[in-house]
Amino acid sequence: MDFLLLLAAGMERQTTSSIIMVRPAAFGSNVETAANNTFQHQPRAGEEEISRNALREFDDLVDKLRNEGVDVLVVEDTPEPAKPDAVFPNNWISFHSNGVVATYPMYSELRRQERRRELLDLLAEKYAISKIMALEDAEAQSLFLEGTGSMVLDRVNRVAYACLSPRTSESLLQKWCELFGYTPFAFQAFLHGQAIYHTNVMMAIGDGVCVVCLDVVEGSRREDLYQQLSSTGRDVVVLRTDQINTFAGNMLALRNGRGEQIMVMSAAAHASLDDDQIARIEKHAHIVSSDVHTIEQVGGGSVRCMIAENFLPHI
After folding, report:
1. Domain 3-309 adopts which CATH fold?
2. Model-level pTM greater than 0.90?
3. What is the DSSP letter of 80?
4. Measuring CA to CA, how many Å separate 110 from each of 10, 32, 114, 272, 305?
5. Which candidate, 247, 284, 242, places its Cα nearest to that of 263?
């Protein structure tokens, strides 16, 4: 059944053509997240140059997505308090097809300021929000689950994949799955001797295709993960560890204005893919890439982290 028929039937969809992005007002390096994000690098440029470059990269990505026919709601970040990671909204909020909005407990105290009620008020003008499920009380117990950074969701088969880390609690993953009717698939994954901080830097799931780096997965879960992904009937494109360093795992499947699948990634991620990987992805999705070098190097996140998918039903 194709995407438009799924939409008409009201079935659970893996992909959406509606997204939310936050245009940063104070993008920069976050010393709190640098403690366990090996993708984050000390900036060499000054604050003004970093902010200017990040805004240009953000706007270029928005333009490319809108040119594809993706419905992009851009929300302006507020300058005060300064929120260096506001450009990564998928970590603090998620929007679901049953009208539920979830907000999440964040490892960095600075990042907790990103949760903004006015965003929900804005969405409520167009979309039916049936319930707000606030999970951030777990911060008091130092338990964290950072949205669709911590979890890569197979929405069709109701499986939540998660590599455990200081930002991804197994007990909270289990609780989330019970609330949303998913089966958890937890594992350990390491890069440069450190637990990978977010699952969405090493794997992504679309319709008919997924990408994953298996070499970073510990023990028998490596084969288990491959078998689980293969069992869904998707074409499993295996990434190399060096490609994870260029954010090749941090891609996101969306739908364009014609209902066709696109795979969105950074220019660095795209350049790291070999011809076979590109061909296998493009059997299922048109690749859309954009240069977000500053955001990747300073913020430690890439294109997928910049996008919050919106599955909420229209009013």
Report:
1. L-arginine/glycine Amidinotransferase; Chain A (3.75.10)
2. yes
3. S
4. 38, 8, 8, 32, 17
5. 284
